[in-house]
Amino acid sequence: MLRHNCLAFVVSRQQEKIFTQPTSKLQAHSPNFLVQSDQAPSLCIAVIGATGELARRKIFPALFALYYSGFLPENVGIVGYSRKNLTDEDLRSIIASTLTCRIDHRENCGDKIDAFLSRTYYLNGGYDNREGMLKLSALMEHIEGGFEANRIFYLSVPQEALLDVASTLAICKPFGFDALCSHWLTKALLSKFQEKQLYRIDHLLGRNLIENLTVLRFSNLIFEPLWSRTYIRSIQVILYFDGYGIIRDIVHSHILQTIALLAMEPPISLNGEDIRNEKVKVLRSIRRLEPSNVILGQYKATFDDKVDVKLNSLTPTYFAAILYIDNARWDGVPFLIKAGTGLIKHRVEIRIQFRHVPGNIYHDRFGHNINLATNELILLNNKVPGLGLQLDASELNLLYKDKYNAEVPDSYEHLLLDVIDGDNHLFMRSDELTAAWNILNPVLQEIDKNNIAPELYELGGRGPVGAYYLWAKHGVQWTED
């Protein structure tokens, strides 16, 4: 199973065209590498941690998919960087087996793979990060052939190496481990780099479902008048998955960002900063989470007919909570979140429950089921699956495979393309990080003091029973699978 470390995935950009100063031109020459001026790339990408599983299985395939589909320049330069003693050909062999062409257009697939691999190089950076980064800069400079080129650095490194590497590059994803850790990481980076140089990746935010939230809200006249406490009774964000951390990863980043996109006021434009301005207002309006409104769970696994806890007895694998947004639009509306692993099935879902129709004349026809009446996300103007932002008039159907005869791109492709295009609305800004940590801090402190014990639940089950009571406590009907 691929292990995702949310603290290690970093994307940023250099060069004048994409918000930062041009790199200084280092004098570097490689005896086995010569670039003609007409082959000099306009974009150079460094994948740091290039021999890791994430880079091999996700990052390089995403870069090739963008290259194959024409979203990267033909002469792009890509450098893989790690501490292993490899050659260019070694790296190309490692990643070649992971590259596939789009299902919907396979023309010249082999030629494209060969061209992509020929633009891919390797650098052994050694164990001195500062010296290694200087070597990397020199190699990228030489690949650029003396011409100015946009640069992207993607870090896939352990958190303990993050700041050391970032100190020589304009890059970091400082989610941190808690509010204090995040504060110091952010302070250290912003003392040297600009906020607009930082792209903090949460790959789950690259899903088409998340992009559809803003399309749903702001391209359909029917929804905006209904999008408030007047008509909405509750909102549920549900994410069942495998292989991630719960609170500091899924809840802090993905779920709180999803709620911010759902609940924000209309931005003045689709500019990334305008959207992030509205998101941070929502996050600052969310009440600090009280331990009484949280249920933790941990699955238990069975080995040789004995029940054994899978992880440390206080490590949660399930998190349920009730959030309230204290502003005029959402006052009193509960936002219910569920996130967990080891559950009955994978599930990514947003449910919006509207209030009952006053004096509903069909009450007797509904019977007891009137309390179960909920509306799923319904898209009238739908985002066509893919890397662009093309809208379509859709049936009331969220199943892309039923509506569109097209492959849905991987979320890494989407987010990497956003970085290239300078679209930062799906990347957390430093003030968003601070606001998110402020929401979760009371609960994290109680967990660290061992004051909240997770409730055990069966592996492959529906999660802790306590979550059902939490929903009932706030007057919300539990949504069954």
Structure annotation, total helices:
14
Name of the CATH superfamily of the largest domain? Dihydrodipicolinate Reductase, domain 2
Number of domains: 2
Averaged pLDDT: 76
CATH topology of the largest domain: Dihydrodipicolinate Reductase, domain 2
Helix content range: 25-40%
β-strand number: 16
Note poorly predicted spans: 1-38, 378-384, 391-401
Q: Structural class from helices and strands?
A: alpha/beta
Straight-line N-to-C gap: 25 Å
Strand content: 15-25%
Rg from Cα: 24 Å
CATH class of the largest domain: Alpha Beta
Shape: globular
In N-to-C order, the SSE pattern is EEHEHHEHEHHEHEHHEEEEEHEEEHHHEH
CATH architecture of the largest domain: 2-Layer Sandwich
Most strands sheet: 8 strands, mixed
Structure, described:
α6 (179-190) runs antiparallel to α13 (430-448), α8 crosses α9 (272-285) and α9 (272-285) packs parallel to α13 (430-448). This protein has helices at residues 53-68, 88-96, 109-118, 129-143, 159-166, 179-190, 208-218, 246-263, 272-285, 363-366, 400-403, 411-421, 430-448, 466-473, and strands at 9-14, 43-48, 77-82, 120-124, 150-156, 198-200, 232-241, 294-303, 306-309, 318-324, 334-341, 347-354, 375-376, 381-383, 391-393, 455-458. It is globular. It starts with 8 loop residues before the first strand and ends in an 8-residue tail after the last helix. The model is unreliable at 1-38, 378-384 and 391-401 (pLDDT under 50). It folds into two domains: 9-201, NAD(P)-binding Rossmann-like Domain (Rossmann fold), CATH 3.40.50.720; 204-473, Dihydrodipicolinate Reductase, domain 2. The strands form three sheets. Strands 7, 8, 9, 10, 11, 12, 13 and 16 form an eight-stranded mixed β-sheet that branches. Strands 4-3-2-5-1-6 form a six-stranded mixed β-sheet, with helices on both faces. 33% of the residues lie in helices and 19% in strands. The longest helix has 19 residues, at 430-448. The protein is α/β, with parallel strands linked by helices. A hairpin with a 7-residue loop joins β14 (381-383) and β15 (391-393). It comes from Citrus sinensis. This is Inactive glucose-6-phosphate 1-dehydrogenase 4.
